[in-house]
Amino acid sequence: MNLKFRGRCRLVILTILLFTLLGSSVSVVQSDAPFRVYLPVIFSPRIPLPDSSFESETATWILFPSTEQLIYSQPDFPTGIVPRTGSHAAWLGYHSESDPTLQNSISQQIVIPSIVPHLSFWTQIQSKKICGSTQSRLSVYVNGQLQWLKEPCKSVSFFDWSRQIVDLTQFANQEVTLTIRVTLEAGDTAQIFLDDFEFSSN
């Protein structure tokens, strides 16, 4: 009896040690299944667009109007504006009284990846317009079709970068023309800064 008792004690102690060591991944639950297993989270990749942060000197992005400078380096930005990464960013919207263009855009030919079909990019918006009182727009087009828009107005103005996400699942595996466009109503001086374009799962 003594040997049997000792054997049972050893078994209980070994079982306790086993559950202690595996406690971070397996726990006993009161259900039909004896164990709950915690699996690692699998993260989807992020795929940057070509020249995603405007650091390249090659003509990846198509600018409209072609005569207007829309990609700037740090020293040329208004006071307080700093590219989110690197030393360059796109600057759409109002530039100066001598250049009061009401519409400008950047675009490029791109294949929308099926594994991560959401367009992700960062904006910094400076505007004096009250939201709901302006017809100005920041828009995303695919093959000329509107997919997303935002009103550049006072309550969304920040002195920091804000991430935007556009679901382009319907265009997965297709080569398309992606266009980011800013259209301002007359007299609007909104400035929209853009950086770090990539495709992500969400």
Could you describe the 3D structure shown?
The protein is mainly β and 202 residues long. It folds into two domains: 2-37; 47-200, Galactose-binding domain-like (Jelly Rolls), CATH 2.60.120. The chain has one helix at 2-21, and strands spanning 26-28, 35-37, 47-48, 62-64, 71-73, 88-93, 103-111, 118-126, 137-142, 145-150, 162-167, 175-183, 191-200. The strands form three sheets. Strands 3, 5, 6, 8, 11 and 13 form a six-stranded antiparallel β-sheet that branches. The longest helix has 20 residues, at 2-21. The protein starts with a helix and ends with a strand.
Q: Mean of residue pLDDT? A: 83
Determine Rg (CA atoms, Å).
Answer: 27 Å
Shape label: globular
**Number of E strands:** 13
Number of domains: 2
CATH topology of the largest domain: Jelly Rolls
CATH class wording of the largest domain: Mainly Beta
Cα distance, first to last residue? 64 Å
Tell me the series of helices and strands, N- to C-terminal. HEEEEEEEEEEEEE
How helix-rich are the residues, as a percent range?
under 10%
Task: Please mark out the parts with pLDDT under 50 across 5 or more consecutive residues, or reply none.
Answer: 1-9, 11-31
The helix count comes to 1
The CATH fourth-level homologous superfamily of the largest domain: Galactose-binding domain-like
Q: Main beta sheet, described?
A: 6 strands, antiparallel
Strand content: 35-45%
